[in-house]
Amino acid sequence: IKEQTFQIIAEYVPTTFDPESKEALTEAEKRSGLSPGAIVKAKWLKPINRRNHGQRTAFCTITCATREDANKAIKQGLTIEGRKIASRKLLPEPTRCLKCQQLTSAHIATNCPNKEDICGTCTKNHRTSDCTITSSEMEQQHCKNCDQSGHAAWSRECPKFAERSAKLLEQVEEAQYKYFPVENDPDSW
């Protein structure tokens, strides 16, 4: 049986942080006043190769072993690489198939019925990772989900993404709380 974990987003983490380093995670726990072993793992939200040149901070998901440590990180922030970092609960988002770009929970890329890959940036028939359009060339981007230009299928600015996100948040009861509810801690409700 897999232990339940609790994910938070750490905002504006220095890019010098190595989320794959056990020592870096232990140091973050210690400096943040969390329990030993509180941080199970960490991962950059956006792949490093998609960062802007010279980018000094990025968002990171932090997986905590307990609700209490996750809530402490949300309430008090984290100290990573000597900087105080704000964090928040990771909320559920619609699933997007990385092959056809459809916002659906019906399938993911491994069982996508489409034969061809559809680019998430321009909607042409190639993998998104092979697209030559950069994130700064917004006028050339086109969204498969709302059929509008000016943003990609992976954009949070997409009206279909916003609509599906709102619907999903209504369905997940725990998503309405800022913290992970703890039975004997009314402040977490």
Give me the oligomer status. single chain
> With helices defined by DSSP (H or I, 4 residues minimum), what is the helix count?
3
Range of strand content: 15-25%
The coarse overall form would be globular
Describe the structure.
With 189 residues, the protein is α+β, with helices and mostly antiparallel strands. 18% of the residues lie in helices and 17% in strands. It is globular, with a radius of gyration of 19 Å. The two termini are 27 Å apart.
List the helices and strands and how they pair.
Layout: E1 6-14, H1 22-32, E2 39-44, E3 57-64, H2 67-76, E4 78-80, E5 83-85, E6 87-89, H3 159-171
Antiparallel strand pairs: 1-3, 1-6, 2-3, 4-5
Short summary of the structure?
With 189 residues, this protein is an alpha+beta fold. Helices cover 18% and strands 17% of the residues.
List keywords for this structure.
alpha+beta; 6 strands; globular; two-stranded antiparallel sheet
